[in-house]
Write a structure and sequence with these properties.
The protein is mainly beta and about 120 residues long. Helix content is about 0%, strand content about 55%. The chain has no helices and eleven strands. The strands form two sheets. Strands 2, 4, 5, 6, 9, 10 and 11 form a seven-stranded mixed sheet that branches. It has a four-stranded antiparallel sheet with strand order 1-3-8-7, with no helix packed on it. A hairpin with a 5-residue loop joins strand 5 and strand 6.
């Protein structure tokens, strides 16, 4: 069994910052790209940032220059540093990755955390 657990959500004033963390645990052989998504009430889930196995990173245009994603392969974790937060970024933030429990990726598990709520009040 494998799982992702997020932490670090909370309430922050506009212009403030938060750091989210996500750690994978269980019977893990390898971890694919690790990403952060968010879903605001009444809206679809959207990609925020992704850290590829290659080391490349990609960000949604709306967060470029303010958010930073970083992964630690030794700790099997990925963090999201969020600066200059706006009220529109109130959402539940989810960590996602694909985990291989054996050498073969054919049976890789697509894993989602339960989410970390970030609230930026108006």
């Amino acid at each position: 069994q494998v799982q992702l657990v997020e932490s670090g959500g909370g309430l922050v004033q506009p212009g403030g910052y938060l750091r989210l963390s996500c750690a994978a645990s269980g019977s893990i052989f390898s971890i694919n790209d690790m990403g952060w998504y968010r879903q605001a009430t009444g809206k679809e889930r959207e990609l925020v940032a992704i850290s590829a196995r290659s080391g490349n990173t990609n960000y949604a245009d709306s967060v470029k220059g303010r958010f930073t994603i970083s992964r630690d392969n030794t700790k099997k974790s990925v963090d999201l540093q969020m600066n200059s937060l706006t009220t529109e970024e109130t959402a539940v933030y989810y960590c996602n990755t694909q985990i291989a429990t054996t050498r073969s990726w054919r049976a890789a598990i697509d894993c989602w955390g339960r989410g970390a709520r970030v609230t930026v009040p108006s």
